[in-house]
Write a structure and sequence with these properties.
By secondary structure, this protein is of the alpha/beta class. The protein folds into two domains: about 5-125 and about 290-310, NAD(P)-binding Rossmann-like Domain (Rossmann fold); about 125-290 and about 320-335, Dihydrodipicolinate Reductase, domain 2, CATH 3.30.360. The protein has nine helices and 15 strands. The chain has helices at about 15-25, 40-45, 55-60, 80-85, 100-115, 130-140, 165-180, 290-305, 310-330; strands spanning about 5-10, 30-35, 50-55, 70, 90-95, 120, 145-155, 185-195, 205-210, 215-220, 225-235, 240-245, 250-265, 270-280, 335. The strands form two sheets. The protein has a nine-stranded mixed beta sheet with strand order 14-13-12-11-7-10-9-8-15. A six-stranded parallel beta sheet has the order 3-2-1-4-5-6, with helices on both faces. Strand 11 (about 225-235) and strand 12 (about 240-245) form a beta hairpin. Helix 4 runs parallel beside helix 5 (about 100-115). It is globular.
Length: about 350
């Protein structure tokens, strides 16, 4: 039964995907769509004639029949819209990144807790079969101790007008790192460069360090001639490669690594590095649309008062890293503690 009535604020790139999945879900009924562009609303109305459309988000929030709101607008609007939605008693799904600052995120997390409302941050990759499989693999101890998390997310465009390349591209892989690695990061170093008059960095490198000698590196770029979406995770036992652009084998698990042996057991403690070269295998992965899984999870959390996998706190952790990266950029790449 479609007993959760939903409104979507923002009908640009991601909004129509949210509307389609809310419409297809057996627990949710999409009732309202809101956008400042009447042309976008007309296109939504053509595809979904039963939906009410409006340019005034406040009319959506005032509707007592609406149980949940999805916010798919630029990040600088998230805090205001999510805060008003929560204050109106609505459950909220908000597009990444969660907010522009950690302080805003903290306020929203506390408000959702106080109101007893579900707050889910749209870190879509966490709901893919690939990332869930990697999480299970690491949790089972098959990777061993995690040594590093190496990410490359580059392409030509799309240049954003309100955020730099770190805030645009890095949240995807930062959320994956946050989901997979249980330890919490302690410091961030970021460097980057802008090649347009706007001054927003279009190429950047972010390094995140952990207490347990784990290191993570993120390469993001709007000026690459090729599109790459790849994560490599190295461990003491095995290594994993996630290639989101590989349609057949998104995950490859390598039985490769190093072992250390003492050169002289009597008195010399110098270690010798030996290489282990084993097999590679690619596990089967379900191809269910991640957003479909996420919407089902959102509805389940609302109905059964469960904690979302990508709740406000997970969104806050990502924003803290993004905020630290921004501070490091402005100071010429100095280390910023989290």
């Amino acid at each position: 039964m479609k007993d959760i009535k939903v409104g979507v604020i923002g009908c640009g790139y991601w909004g129509p995907n949210l509307i389609r999945n809310f419409s297809d879900n057996y627990n949710t009924d999409i009732k309202f769509a809101c956008d400042l562009s009447r042309d976008k609303l007309e296109r939504i109305k053509l595809r979904h004639p039963s939906i009410n459309v409006t340019t005034d988000y406040k009319s959506l929030l005032k509707d007592k029949d609406i149980h949940a709101v999805a916010v798919a607008t630029p990040v600088f609007t998230h805090y205001k819209l999510v805060k008003e939605a929560l204050e109106s008693g609505k459950h909220v799904l908000v597009e990444k990144p969660f907010t522009s600052t950690a302080r805003e995120a903290e306020t929203l997390v506390n408000l959702a807790y106080k109101k007893g409302l579900t707050l889910l941050v749209d870190h879509t990759f966490i709901y893919t079969g690939s990332i869930r499989r990697i999480k299970d693999f690491i949790s089972a101890g098959e990777l061993g101790d995690v040594y590093y998390f190496d990410s490359v997310r580059v392409n030509l465009g799309l240049f954003q007008h309100d955020v730099n390349v770190i805030w645009d591209l890095a949240p995807h892989d930062l959320s994956i790192m946050d989901f997979i690695i249980e330890e919490k990061p302690v410091s961030v170093v970021a460097t980057g460069a802008s090649h347009t008059p706007r001054g927003l960095e279009d190429v950047a490198y972010v390094t995140v360090k952990f207490r347990d000698n784990i290191i993570a590196h993120f390469h993001v770029n709007w000026m690459s001639p090729v599109k790459i979406r790849k994560v490599i995770i190295g461990g003491s036992k095995k290594m994993v490669v996630f290639d989101d652009l590989d349609p057949a084998e998104k995950i490859k698990i390598y039985d490769k690594g190093i072992t250390l042996s003492k050169a002289n057991e009597k008195s010399v403690y110098q270690s010798m590095v030996q290489y282990r070269i084993g097999d590679m295998y690619a596990p089967a992965i379900t191809n269910i649309e991640a957003l479909k899984v996420e919407i089902e999870h959102f509805a389940d959390c609302i109905k059964n008062k469960k904690k979302p996998i990508t709740d406000g706190e997970s969104g806050l952790r990502v924003v803290r890293i993004l905020e630290a990266a921004s501070k490091s950029l402005k100071k010429g790449g100095v280390k910023v503690n989290i």
